[in-house]
Automatic annotation (TrEMBL):
SUPFAM superfamilies per the UniProt record, alphabetical: beta-lactamase/transpeptidase-like
Designated name of the protein: D-alanyl-D-alanine carboxypeptidase/D-alanyl-D-alanine-endopeptidase
EC nos: 3.4.16.4
NCBIfam families the UniProt entry points to: PBP4
């Protein structure tokens, strides 16, 4: 069994507690207690399930109080972690940017102002805020109008230069590009609602009042930036089968299928091509509503002059608060923005490479061995990310000493808690078991990839850090097996007083999209 790394205060104790020989796949200490032996047998039995036949598994469980490794199977094996990657990104962001960090979006002007006329350009400068709503752009426009500007003779310049112009993450597959979980990253963008999926628009298709007519299609927010190609039909009766998908490389959204008269509208989130232009379109419409006319064109990619005069500003929620929608709903866009923001703040370069370098340096300081893992993006969408379960456990054990830990721990999904921004991606899992309201953990899913890494408190009050990574399975989902392990850990007692058999928790079937990605990518359930 390989040695685990822990915070400095536990380092000596951890070395003593983990000095054991590697005997069985789940072996830990030389003389395990009867309770630990039963725990080994339980987890071994779960991992022997036929759904994992031919798959790869990496599972590690550690007592965070003593440093003792309670279970280790293939803990040093590099596997694809999916959204468990966000554990690295989120902890690094809190440490390197700070819980009080905010993103600012402002409006500035150049040229002379006289009697409501601005003889110059109006600059909309993006600060990377992934939570900007149409209402926030409306508030900025109101501030511009309140400053007395009525006519702008120059251009509306959309400044997204805080980050580079590489919009899509390294290694992302091209056919994911229209879906909300793979939205393009820009320093200037729009989110359609308070899930804050920046760079997306929600497209709605409502039935017409008569059969044979096309559905009524609208968007949230209202925008002319996307073009609707409505090929769908309203039918007198029958099952609704509306498909909404953006064509690759364009902002044409094609609506197909049918919807019955009287049915509820069908809605879907789709990404936009070049979100900077999307933000500028929403802001320009808001300016018109507030009586501000821009005579020039909309121009993007041009930096705001340092001497430009500020006329409006919006600050985001702080990073501590942002952790809740980010981690509870496993928001990929937040992870990628934070990666670029880390690079921008620490090195002046808003790029994936700069951000990932800084994240790697931070997690190495916590005790992760960055020489045996690879992180290619902030969210885990890349299949070239490779992290052993043992390294996740090292991180989980170490960050308990950080001053921001309580904020981060509360932002992790909590098993069996039905409220969306409490239970998050675990809200429908492990309900009615000892793990409900107990397990705080990050989920992860790609086709053939599943993970669950976090914390659980045992029946005798010990806090355990665990990581379960499962790869290369062919079945629809292995999440019930993850849940069984987590429930067994929640019921564990070192003195063996709890001997009742742990029944497998009830887990709903995993929704799947046509392209085969698991529940991570199906609204409103994410993982």
């Amino acid at each position: 069994m390989h040695r685990r790394h822990f915070p400095r205060a536990l380092a000596l104790l951890a070395l003593v507690a983990t000095a054991a020989t590697a005997a069985a796949p789940g072996a830990t200490a030389e003389s395990p207690t009867p309770a630990t032996t039963r725990l080994h047998a339980t987890i071994d039995t779960i991992l022997a399930d036929t759904r994992l036949a031919g798959a790869q598994t990496s599972v590690v469980v550690v007592d965070t109080g003593t440093g003792e490794t309670l279970y280790d199977r293939n803990g040093d094996r590099r596997l694809v972690p999916a959204s468990n990657t966000k554990l690295l990104t989120s902890t690094a962001a809190l440490e390197l940017l700070g819980p009080g960090h905010r993103f600012s979006t402002d409006v500035r002007t150049t040229g002379k102002r006289r009697a409501g006329l601005l003889s110059g350009n109006l600059y909309l400068r993006g600060g990377g805020d992934p939570t900007m709503l149409a209402a926030d752009y409306d508030a900025l426009a109101a501030q511009v109008a309140a400053n007395g500007i009525r006519v702008v003779t120059g251009n509306l310049v959309a400044d997204d230069t805080r980050y580079d112009h590489t919009r899509l993450g390294p290694d992302w597959t091209w056919d994911d590009e229209p879906y909300y979980y793979a939205a393009e990253v820009s320093a200037l963008t729009v989110a359609p609602d308070t899930d804050y999926d920046a760079g997306t628009v929600i497209v709605h298709a409502a039935p017409a009042d008569r059969a044979g007519a096309p559905p009524v299609v609208s968007t949230t927010p209202a925008t002319g930036y996307v073009r609707i190609d409505n090929r769908a039909e309203t039918v007198a009766e029958g099952e609704t089968s509306i498909s909404i998908e953006r064509e690759h490389g364009s902002n044409t959204v094609v609506v197909t299928g049918q919807i019955a008269v009287g049915d509820e509208q069908a809605s879907d989130w789709v990404t936009v091509w070049e979100p900077t232009g999307y933000a500028a379109d929403v802001f320009r419409a808001a300016l018109r509503r507030h009586g501000v006319r821009v005579l020039g064109r909309t121009v993007s990619g041009e930096a705001t002059p340092e001497a430009a005069e500020p006329v409006a500003r919006h600050d985001s929620m702080n990073l501590g608060a942002l952790m809740t929608p980010f981690l509870k709903l496993s928001n990929n866009g937040h992870a990628e923005v934070l990666t670029k923001e880390i690079g921008r703040v620490l090195s002046g370069s808003g790029t994936w490479s700069a951000g990932l370098t800084a994240i790697s340096e931070y997690v190495a300081d916590t005790g992760m061995d960055t020489g045996i893992l690879r992180q290619r993006d902030g969210s885990g969408l890349s299949r070239r990310n490779l992290v052993p379960a043992g390294e996740f456990v090292d991180l989980l054990a170490a960050v308990r000493a950080e001053p921001w830990f309580a904020t981060w721990y509360a932002a992790l999904p909590i098993a069996g808690q039905p409220e969306r921004f409490v239970g998050g991606t675990l809200r429908s899992r492990m309900a009615g078991t000892p793990a409900a309201g107990n397990v705080h953990a990050k989920t992860g899913s790609l086709t053939g990839v599943s993970g669950l890494s976090g914390y659980v408190t045992t029946a005798d009050g010990r806090q355990l850090a665990f990581s379960i990574l499962l790869n290369n399975y062919l079945t629809a989902s292995v999440k019930p097996l993850e849940d069984q392990i987590a429930v067994a850990l929640a019921a564990y007692r070192e003195d063996g007083a709890t001997t009742a058999r742990v029944a497998p928790p009830t887990v709903p079937d995993t929704p799947r999209t046509p392209e085969g990605v698991e529940c991570s990518w199906v609204k409103p359930i994410t993982c």
